[in-house]
Amino acid sequence: MLHSTQEFLSGNAIPGASSALPVLDLSLMDGTAVEQQAFIQQLRLAARDVGFFYLTGHGQTIQKQQQILALARQFFALPLADKQQVQMIHSPHFRGYTGLGGELTRGQPDIREQFDMMREEAVPAQTDISPAWQGLIGPNQWPTALPQMKTELLDWQQSLSDITVKLMRALMLALEQPADALDATIKAGPYQHMKLIRYPGVDAKASSSKQGVGAHKDPGYLTLVVQDDQSGLEVETEQGWVAVAPLPGAFVVNIGELLELASNGYLKATLHRVVSPNSGIERYSCAFFMAAQLDATVPLLQLPSHLADEAKGPASDPNNPLFYQVGQNVLKGRLRSHRDVAAAHYAELAKAV
Ligand SMILES: O=C(O)CCC(=O)C(=O)O
Ligand SMILES: [Fe+2]
């Protein structure tokens, strides 16, 4: 039986691709009123039913995307000593290099190495009443061996951030809210977090794990992923785990838990994972996570009843502390994922998470 997503997808899915995800063209938002409405309706269905989609028409060229993935390849190909110069353990702000198995998802090591960055900021002045999450704010670590990384990646991160803000405003229109309904939560600039990632090939016979990254939902508002021609990214759907086939030039977009919460379960945060490539193959990706600024209070949006009735995700509890403890929750996630950094810089808090 066709359910609404499949009906909707029939006109939009990639011909011949194994992936069943919708493809949405963001440039329609710069078009006529009719085109904008078409985009908003497609976006509403994709975000409600699947929580994952491909985005085209976003203004970034495929060459630029490939340039970023090439930079990732260059970084991970550096001698270990150069990568260790920027190891995350040196950063109380959770920035820098993490080697294979250094990050945990639900307590299990992920078989990937990565470079994490966020906004480039100065360390704010600490007072007795500064919240612990203020420790997340500070400078990135940059490898001296690849001096071009700093400007290229900060510039790229800002471009991706701008795309997610445009998309979030379109999502608000899709929910029949003012476009700026969540703007107060990003007014100082949205929380930005980006990762360059390398997934090495794994010999299934020799290893019991093919956990590139374990099944999880992203915590924030919106995620954009650029993947190379190897996939392995999989999304949980009603039909089971579905592969997100590479679509050159597109970003893969998914909804995070904070947006699911704010929309009372209408916008869906979907479980996803990356299965390691087979031995002899490696996969590179760049993931960008946009969320509310760390000191935000996120509103519970009041949806019109015809939309509220269609929400498929869990209804939100308006008293959920996630609405007002944004920074604390981000810090908790980082402490859980990077136990070594937590022990080195947040010894007391690390014991409690
Ligand atoms: O590498 C990817 O394709 C996705 C990674 C991911 O889901 C994450 O880091 O949250
Ligand atoms: Fe993710």
Which helices and strands occur, and which strands form pairs?
Blueprint: H1 4-9, E1 23-25, H2 33-49, E2 52-56, H3 62-76, H4 80-84, E3 96-98, E4 104-105, E5 108-109, E6 113-118, H5 149-174, E7 191-199, E8 211-216, E9 222-227, E10 233-237, E11 240-243, E12 251-255, H6 257-262, E13 272-275, E14 283-291, H7 305-308, H8 326-337, H9 339-345, H10 347-352
The site of fe (ii) ion has 4 residues, from loops.
Description:
By secondary structure, this protein is an alpha+beta fold. The chain has one domain: Jelly Rolls, CATH 2.60.120.330. The protein is built from ten helices and 14 strands. It has helices at 4-9, 33-49, 62-76, 80-84, 149-174, 257-262, 305-308, 326-337, 339-345, 347-352, and strands at 23-25, 52-56, 96-98, 104-105, 108-109, 113-118, 191-199, 211-216, 222-227, 233-237, 240-243, 251-255, 272-275, 283-291. Strands 1-2-12-9-14-7-6-3 form an eight-stranded mixed β-sheet. A four-stranded antiparallel β-sheet has the order 8-13-10-11, with no helix packed on it. Strands 4-5 form a two-stranded antiparallel ribbon. A hairpin with a 2-residue loop joins strand 4 (104-105) and strand 5. Helix 2 (33-49) crosses helix 5 and helix 8 packs across helix 9 (339-345). It is globular and about 55 Å long. The relative contact order is 0.17. Mean pLDDT is 93; it is low at 1-18. The structure holds 2-oxoglutaric acid (AKG) and fe (ii) ion. Fe (ii) ion binds at residues 216, 218, 223, 272. Fe (ii) ion binds next to loops.
